[in-house]
Amino acid sequence: MSDRRGNPLRRLRRPAWAEQRPTWKDAKPALINAALERARARPAGGWFVLAGSREVRDGAAFGRVVAGRELVVWRDADGAVHAGPGACPHLGAALCDAPVHDGQLVCRWHGLSLGPGGRPGWRTLPAHDDGVLVWVRLDEHASGAPTDVPVLGPRPPAERSLAAVATVVGRCEPDDVIANRLDPWHGAWLHPYSFAALEVLSAPTVTCTNAEDRFLVEVTFTLGGKLGVPVHAEFSCPDERTITMEIVDGEGTGTVVETHATPMRPGSDGRPRTAVIEAVVAHSDRPGFVHSRRVAAALRPLMALTARRLWRDDIAYAERRYELRSRSAR
Ligand code: FES
Ligand SMILES: [Fe+2]
Question: What is the model's pTM?
Fold first, then answer.
């Protein structure tokens, strides 16, 4: 791995795409499915990621359908996040574009004010802002007992990190999104523009314990085709709808990419929709990194953009998986 103060870039030496070592023998369906089953058995305490923290701005509501329910979130005067049904209890106006005045949502149709205390026919829901993501708790969908706060995986310290959140919607179920990420072997084949020299150093066995339930991957993130940054990354699932990648060695050790799969509701084609809400929390021990927080506003869209092509291919993988599953269920 690189010396943390030296140049992290390495010249890429890699075979042509078709000459890479095929990984299909290692990517055993039974192993991936067993990892998915174990993730599914890890309760999220009823919490669902609804949005990135920055998407919920002062003075404006933010709406999203979560697990079939139209919801709205907003911030009060102290910046605390609140959540409630996304339809006004009077005549049903959508509240996702309601302005916020004095900590209350104000319905655009007839001016009804809706606050954190709720009102008859409009009950608010537990909400949580972890500084990167906004979560909402839906007790009717809790697979175990509801918990006070969401289950969080590893995160670097907030004062030395830089977060960006991006969302895409796939025509599939949350399982398909998680299963795609539980197959690290596709990395250098499906995403040669981003990854090279990918080796899965260890994978959980079908019957592993919780402590052993992680993939350790050696991979080089490529930059412009000729250069790359080699790292070791660990993948694990803190809850049933989340997979986390943590850089455990190399440049940016401590950086985390959290992929959250939030079920929405079927589209007009009858297929399910899942919001893939991905948070990149970049971290570095390099002196000076903290100053790059000053250029955070410029970096954020860039961090989201580099993920876009990856996402297109990963969503296509997840949608294909859903299609095959629904075909065989018919
Ligand atoms: S629909 Fe909201 S106040 Fe009438
Ligand atoms: Fe991928």
Answer: 0.92
